[in-house]
Design brief:
single chain, 274 residues, alpha/beta, Rossmann fold, six-stranded parallel β-sheet, 10 helices, 6 strands
């Protein structure tokens, strides 16, 4: 049931590709909670995905392509968004990530460094570029909210997550640092949400991902958080109910992040003797 938590608010959702995308779920939930949105993704992703269907479901929201590594693209996106809204932006979702090395199946100790730079530029530095563009154009309203999606591999070793772990660690660092400056400037809050593993197009590309999901479910007292539940949580961070939460990495993972071990995990390694 919608509670109009975002009534009158306006924002940009980066990264919706298809119905599996967390960004897709967030966009729909923002709209249902009363927000107006603009959808954006890379031009190649717009051709591959189904984002126009999402736009229709969200009140014919504009779809504006932008390469998040390209400052000119981002400037064009923000200028068109400000023109469309007739004013400032209240929230931004960064749900962008890609690793060429992971796609090519290269191990962490044998990555291609040119690919690695692309991973950082797309998955992490893009957040800095988005915030820098918003800063320069004074696009975010006071008490605005920015959320970027991350994963606990930024703090712990998950071997098959590869260089994306480094990218997420950088993403979280940018969140803290830019959160300090933007908070001082305009009371804008910036946070990351560390979500349970969920089956998305990006997540499915990580080797052993099904194993990640099964292990996390056995480790989490509440079970894995769904994409829909994540969308609800992100909406709460966009709303005025969380006005003083900033520079945080917020775990939305059913308790996985603070659970040492569970009987289910032990039993999977050492089945009871018959």
């Amino acid at each position: 049931m919608a509670n109009n938590l975002l009534q009158g608010k306006k924002g940009i959702i980066f990264g919706a590709l298809n119905e599996q995308s967390i960004a897709w779920k967030v966009a729909k939930q923002c709209y249902e909670e009363g927000a107006q949105i603009v959808l954006s993704n890379a031009p190649v992703a717009l051709r591959m995905g189904e984002i126009n269907n999402l736009a229709v479901a969200c009140g014919n929201a504009p779809v504006i392509g932008a390469d998040v590594t390209n400052m000119d693209d981002l400037k064009n996106l923000f200028e068109k968004t400000l023109e469309h809204f007739g004013g400032g932006i209240d929230f931004i979702l960064h749900s962008v990530g890609m690793s060429v090395n992971v796609r090519k199946g290269l191990d962490y100790y044998d990555i291609n460094y040119q690919n690695n730079q692309k991973t950082f530029d797309i998955s992490s530095i893009s957040l800095h570029k988005i915030l820098k563009t918003a800063w320069d154009l004074d696009a975010l309203n006071e008490w605005g909210s920015v959320v970027a999606l991350t994963y606990i591999a930024a703090q712990r070793v998950f071997p098959d997550y590869n260089e994306m772990a480094d990218a997420k660690a950088l993403l979280e660092s940018i969140t803290r640092n830019f959160g300090y400056y933007y908070g001082n400037k305009k009371k804008v809050r910036i946070n990351t949400v560390s979500q349970s593993p969920v089956k998305t197009t990006a997540g499915g590309g990580v080797k052993g991902f099904d194993g990640f999901m099964e292990y996390a479910a056995k480790m989490s007292p509440l079970g894995n958080a769904t994409s829909d539940a994540c969308a609800n949580y992100v909406v709460s961070l966009f709303s005025d109910l969380s006005k003083f939460v900033t520079m945080q990495n917020l775990f939305h993972d059913g308790g996985f992040s603070f659970t040492g071990v569970t009987p289910e995990v032990i039993q999977s390694m050492y089945p009871p003797e018959k």
